[in-house]
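$ fold --in a.seq
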Amino acid sequence: MRDWPEAERPRERLLRQGPQALSEAELLAVFLRIGLPGRSVIDLARGAIERFGSLNGLLSAPASEIQAMAGFGPAKCAQLLAVVELARRALREQVQRECLLDSPDRVRDYLRLRIARLPHEAFIGLFLDAQNRLIRDEDLFTGTLTQTSVYPREVVKRALQHNAAAVIFAHNHPSGLAEPSRADELLTRALRDALALVDVRVLDHVIVAGHASVSFAERGLL
């Protein structure tokens, strides 16, 4: 990019106009800094996004696949994963300060950063206070690609330990399909009924698969 007119260089444009003025490929190019012989850094960034289908696909990809790409390697992969983790923690701080029912899009963004890239299925709970603010998010169960064992009694115990007034559940589908299964629906009802006995509300159950997500509350499944 050194040969480009200064006004067109992504880094200079970012500093002058703000990051929102840059495309996804240009933002990634700023991160990568340099290209390869015969291939500009913009081409490198665009190729990485295209390989995984989207920027989110790239950020959710396994580390082994990221560092296998030309121009990335272990160092760039580690830096990219660190950036994703920083974003997740910053978003978590925002989520903790807000009423989660007032920011469903932010909750989904947080859940995607939290569990979308996991290679195995994970079931987590967001435990909320009476104002629907986050008390704690917790990994409740992990399983194989196709099955996770979730025990309502243990979930009730965790809700009581956190003195939660409500909970939002979420789990990922590593298969890439966000649609809930019949088993997902039955589990959600079992958890809802068990928690109702101790006066804890289930506000939602969100399934995350890559950049896609499905809300049980929006589907009328609660």
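$ fold --in b.seq
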Amino acid sequence: MSDIAAIKRFLRCETPDAWISAALANPAMLLIDHANCEKKAASTAINLIYRYVDNFELLNKMSRLAREELRHFEQVIAIMRARGIPYRQVSASRYAARLREPLRAAEPGRLIDTLIVGAVIEARSCERFARLAPHLDEELQAFYLSLLKSEARHYRDYLALAQKAAAEYGSGGESVEARLETFLDLERQLIVQADTEFRFHSGPLPQAEAPAAERCC
């Protein structure tokens, strides 16, 4: 639980109760988009491996992270298959794309910002797993709680790599702390502002539009 406490201190807000309600009302989409998130997280790590071939610590940590995220993807789709939930294409939430809008174009700023965004996303994922777990059925609760340790480590790895990159290559004109404030403030806005459709990283849905579908988990 100490990891979760640190992550709660790191993030600027807690997941709203309205998002939890939407997740419980839409269990199929919760799992479908969770699978998508694991797949995208692995892809991000692999892209970093291709882009920054001279950073051995980054290569090792991103290789491990990609393997873990793909394993999580396999676990999610196994649960979906057992529950008769088909895996299908769904539109992405605004969350990751909006978080990446302030990325700097020039290096080393681009690397530092990309790593900070990775840390923020992993921290939020961990916080959401912890928030959701008490409301889920026994199988999903155990699964989501099992993810907390790795997600917390991913957040720490991304943040440590950002700080190390700034120390080795320069900060690109702004400190890591200043960039963190930029991305964390933006992330808070995305988490608390109402969204148009439910996704794993969406904001809460307006009460009148919250899905009234099957109650899960």
